[in-house]
Design brief:
The chain is of the alpha+beta class. Helix content is 24%, strand content 28%.
Length: 232
């Protein structure tokens, strides 16, 4: 009888753990990522990158020493000519850094995809949920992720939409990109609630991220957005 009760208790515990897997297992803090544009030896948007690092580390590594980008850059030998990406992985400390040649990839078509399960509020090194969405792009060059009927981001960039007079960016992106933050501060773009069904009210769409200056971002006609006929 005693052995039966022990077996029943064990089965109950397994059931609890299957329903509440995080109740007994604490997930490790995530590895975070930062990508910085280096043009002719100069780092772009450094205050915005520093601000994002500080915000992310306050959430995940609040008791860790400050990670200063200026100090890191002083210790690096950056290429004097050309466009490069400084890719940094960090957690409680700096984990990895590399300087890579960068060539913008062309984007001529973009497809709306449902991304309701994607959570990317910080710039995490783990982009598996976004890569899963990319598997749905079909013949298109990139994706435009939709959550609860609202536009968010492309796979590697924030977006802006032109209505003939002003550039608008989704008020609730998956990630608050550094280029987006700078353009908001300058008044070049304005935050707006934009639903997928609102796309036909705009003329064009532009992608923007830290590696692309505003005027360099891939820009497409709205007709090049695939999936606008779907009921979102």
């Amino acid at each position: 009888m005693k052995e039966r009760n022990l077996q029943a208790l064990s089965t109950y515990q397994i059931a609890i753990l299957s329903v509440f897997p995080l109740a007994k297992k604490k997930l490790p803090p995530p590895i975070l990522l930062e990508s910085i544009r280096i043009m002719d030896g100069e780092a772009d948007l450094l205050p915005y990158h520093q601000r994002r690092i500080d915000r992310s580390r306050r959430v995940h590594y609040a008791k860790s020493p400050v990670l200063k980008l200026e100090k890191l850059l002083e210790e690096l030998s950056l290429p004097a000519k050309g466009l490069y990406k400084l890719r940094i992985e960090y957690g409680a400390t700096l984990l990895k850094q590399e300087v890579l040649p960068y060539t913008p990839r062309p984007v001529n078509t973009i497809k709306l995809v449902d991304a309701k399960n994607v959570a990317y509020g910080r710039k995490y090194a783990d982009r598996s949920s976004i890569r899963k969405c990319l598997e749905k792009k079909g013949h298109c060059d990139d994706i435009l992720m939709v959550q609860h009927g609202h536009l968010t981001d492309a796979s590697y960039a924030n977006i802006a939409l032109f209505d003939g007079k002003h550039w608008h960016t989704p008020a609730w992106p998956l990630l608050r990109g550094t280029r987006r933050e700078m353009l908001l501060d300058k008044g070049t773009i304005r935050p707006s609630v934009i639903r997928a069904r609102d796309l036909k009210s705009f003329q064009s769409i532009r992608l923007m991220n830290a590696m692309l200056r505003w005027e360099e971002g891939p820009t497409m006609d709205i007709k090049d957005v695939v999936g606008t006929d779907k009921d979102w």
